[in-house]
Amino acid sequence: MVCKKCEKKLSKLxxxxxxxxxxxxxxxxxxxxxxxxxxxxxxxxxxxxxxYKGKCKDCKQSVTQNNAKYCHGxxxxxxxxxxxxxxxxxxxxxxxxxx
Length: 99
Prior knowledge:
InterPro entries: PDZ-binding_CRIPT
Number of helices: 3
Number of strands: 0
Main location: cytoplasm
Helix content: 10-25%
Mean pLDDT: 76
Subcellular location: Cytoplasm
Organism: Amanita thiersii Skay4041
Shape: elongated
Protein name: Cysteine-rich PDZ-binding protein
Distance between the termini: 18 Å
């Protein structure tokens, strides 16, 4: 669960470039076939997604988003935003297991 403010902070998936080898730019040599633009951009090595870097505050499980404080399970159980920790949902009327 993520609040409205943190939606723009979500990580982006890296996908291959959709250009084909018949493109005029590739024939000139200025572009590569299958180049991943998120990885090849200058300055992205320091901001690269590292999936096992962060740990959850409660259960110490690895989180799936950059800069996340809580894993998806703990954030859902408590009704918190997984990135900033702000209360998003009131979970008092719900019956949730403690497992």
